[in-house]
Design brief:
Blueprint (H helix, E strand, L loop, with lengths): L2 E3 L3 H7 L11 H6 L4 E2 L19 E7 L11 E3 L12 E3 L4 E4 L2 E8 L9 E3 L1 E8 L2 E8 L8 E9 L2 H4 L6 E8 L5 E7 L15 E3 L8 E7 L3 E6 L5 E6 L15 E9 L1 H4 L11 E13 L1
């Protein structure tokens, strides 16, 4: 049975340089040159977003179903840099560690050296060329089936204004973060300029026990409105973490009135994934994505 519990991963996995979108790599300049397409924003000005039926009727605004044989280059950009340049990780991110086949995207982590050192592993990190504001957002994914220490898998969004305001002021939404030394446990996280430094409301969910996370596909979803962020697994009836707009919102404590872009990656080692070492027997291994969908209320 799925249940929620608290563990040390709450702090180890999230607060120790755990932000998903920032590093000191040379690639930051390449990424900052991207001009993302802003998907139309749903008009929620007079909407009763707290109505129990508000999300009953939605329409698909954007998706990637990964039904082809390759990454759609008009939708995705690969960030390529050395693992040591972000969160003291061991992998190098490349554009050669993905595959699209049988209706899913596969992000692969591989061991290419003797192991245990920076550059002995490769993986992939992708960011979307589209940006979104508000809606019901869903990613259906299956975590790496090889259980063992050393991996940190994440599906996230970063504020599209990161190049002008920086991190964490841009805000971050993490749909799913998973450290493989803690199998069957996932988290959701919200970072703002205020709570990233521990001065604001807690931005991390309790640990969610998802026993089949590595064996089955699950939906990692978010209901995003001007008033709240609600994270759920599989169905909107299963909300397990809510982050509510503060009484006095500003750009530091509520970054979520502007557009965000998607990102996903699988890191090896580092302060989070490598907190209990890296088990070289798990490689190669795969994070699998069935689809990413953005719905707007009708």
């Amino acid at each position: 049975m799925n249940h929620i519990k608290l563990s040390t991963f709450l702090f180890i996995g999230i607060l120790m340089l755990s932000f998903s979108g920032c590093s000191n790599s040379d690639n930051e300049n390449e990424t900052s040159e991207l001009i993302r397409t802003e998907v139309a924003v749903p008009n929620l000005e007079n909407a009763d977003v707290n109505s129990p039926t508000f999300w009953d009727n939605t329409e698909l605004a954007w998706s990637d179903e990964f039904n082809g044989t390759s990454i759609e280059s008009d939708k995705w950009y690969f960030e390529s840099y050395l693992g040591s340049q972000g969160n003291t990780e061991l992998q190098n991110y490349t554009d050669d560690n993905t595959e699209v086949s049988n209706g899913t995207l596969k992000i692969q982590a591989k061991k290419i050296g003797s192991g245990q050192k920076v550059g002995d592993y490769t993986s992939a990190r992708m960011v979307s060329k589209f940006a979104f504001t508000y809606g019901k957002l869903e990613i259906r994914a299956k975590l790496p089936p090889e259980k063992g220490n050393g991996l940190w898998s994440k599906i996230w969004m970063l504020g599209n204004n990161i190049d002008t305001v920086g991190y964490p002021q841009c805000g971050e939404l993490i749909f799913m973060t998973y450290a493989s030394y803690n199998p069957g446990i996932v988290n959701a996280t919200v970072h703002t300029g205020e709570n990233f430094y521990g001065n604001g409301p807690v931005g991390t969910s309790l640990d969610y026990n998802l026993d089949t996370a590595e064996e089955e596909f699950h939906i990692y979803g978010l209901l995003w409105t001007p008033e709240y962020l609600k994270f759920y697994i599989d169905t909107t009836d299963n909300i397990y973490f809510t982050f509510t707009r503060p009484d006095t919102p500003n750009d530091t404590n509520w970054s979520f009135t502007k557009s965000f872009y998607f990102g996903m990656d699988m890191a090896v080692g580092g302060a989070v994934g490598g907190a209990k070492g890296v088990d070289d027997s798990i490689f190669p291994t795969t994070l699998e994505i069935d689809y990413i969908r953005v719905y707007h209320p009708e």
